Amino acid sequence: MKIYFFSIPFFIFLLSSCAQEGFYNSQQKNLKQECEKLTSPQHEQCLSDLDERSYDEYRRERNEVLRENFVGR
């Protein structure tokens, strides 16, 4: 019974982090598809404005900002 007690939160954490990465990647793909609908000059500008960071880079930078905001209080 104790094993289930400790393993359930671990699996919930694991699934939530996978879901967050999936959402990030999906959102990036959707933004790129929206750029594809634009005309040439707008299309180029839209693509250059897209964030090309990987999810790991995004998460690392986000955690740094959150840490700075938390410590700054």
Short overview:
The protein is mostly helical and 73 residues long.
Structural account:
This protein is 85% helix and 0% strand. The longest helix has 35 residues, at 2-36. The protein is mainly alpha-helical. The protein has one domain. It has three helices and no strands. The termini are far apart.
Percent of residues in beta strands? under 5%
**Class by SSE composition:** mainly alpha
Counted beta strands: 0
Number of helices: 3
Keywords:
73 residues, mainly alpha, 3 helices
Question: What is the element layout, followed by pairings?
Answer:
Blueprint (H helix, E strand, L loop, with lengths): L1 H35 L3 H10 L5 H17 L2
